[in-house]
Specification:
single chain, 270 residues, alpha/beta, four-stranded parallel β-sheet
């Protein structure tokens, strides 16, 4: 067993910029923690990749984060969480604590008293049916309506939100009959908190919008505290890595983390 200590960093990964919403939430809730972020921009989006490919990418990224001495790994991607979480956990074993972005949201929504829940996400996440399965394992009486919204993540990745284009695409998806009469909506993609305001405007705040970023950050804090793994000192030297450098990713990183950051491209596939 590898010895871990509270001063080691928290590793976070996603297929692109979406996971930055989770990293940002963790940074706000746990300001003493050092973060190492990996955005697999070379393989974005994960939503249309095969389960075997997603497992392979996730294991390689997990190895990279373990090699960088991370005490915890947050799979900040719903598709990877739904299809590779158990694989990553088995691979990492006792070297680090592994978190996904699905279980904390399921726990939150099933305790909320919701009766009819909508889920929007990538094709991979929706096809896995993971949210409906896990929610109904807790409460069979909750109705779950899942809708694939494949254009949203690429739209956000290109910085196209809070404008006429995004409003048109969002409204088109949310107007589908499948999502009629829901009282809660799970944003089952870590990109989607960036369009939460537009979604709230569509529903005129009559639907409870569940943003996974803050829920996951609180879950990570609770678990690390229980294991006495919270860093008590200051360590703000965050590191951001990508598998393929893009200007939009660098701009997004600086949008969330105001201080000057160094974005580094690394190849981990050999």
């Amino acid at each position: 067993m590898r010895t871990t200590n509270s001063k080691q960093p928290i590793g976070i990964f996603d297929s692109g910029i979406g996971g930055l919403t989770v990293a940002n939430a963790i940074n706000k809730i746990l300001p003493n923690e050092q973060l190492i972020y990996f955005g697999d921009t070379a393989h974005f989006p994960y939503g249309d990749k095969s389960p075997d490919s997603i497992k392979y990418y996730s294991i390689r990224i997990a190895k990279f984060l373990i090699d960088n001495n991370c005490k915890a790994i947050v799979i900040a991607c719903n598709t990877a969480s739904s299809q590779a979480y158990e694989t990553v956990k088995d691979f990492v074993a006792d070297k680090a604590i592994v978190f996904n972005v699905i279980d904390p949201v399921v726990e939150k929504v099933t305790a909320s008293g919701a009766g009819s829940i909508g889920v929007i996400g990538t094709k991979g996440t929706i096809k896995s049916n993971v949210y409906a399965t896990k929610i109904n394992q807790v409460n069979q009486n909750i109705k779950v309506a899942s809708l694939a919204t494949p254009l949203l993540a690429p739209m956000i990745e290109e910085g196209l939100f809070n404008n006429k284009i995004s409003k048109s695409i969002i409204n088109s998806y949310l107007s589908k009959a499948k999502l009629k009469n829901i009282d809660s909506l799970i944003l089952a993609c870590t990109h989607y908190p960036l369009i939460k305001q537009e979604i709230e405007e569509f529903y005129k705040k009559n639907v409870n919008i569940l943003d996974s970023a803050e829920i996951v950050a609180q879950h990570v804090k609770k678990n690390l505290a229980e294991k006495k793994m919270l860093n008590q000192g200051k360590n703000l030297n965050h590191h951001f890595y990508v598998s393929d450098f893009t200007d939009s990713f660098e701009q997004s990183t600086r949008f969330f983390f105001k201080n000057k950051i160094h974005l580094e491209e690394v190849s981990i596939w050999k």
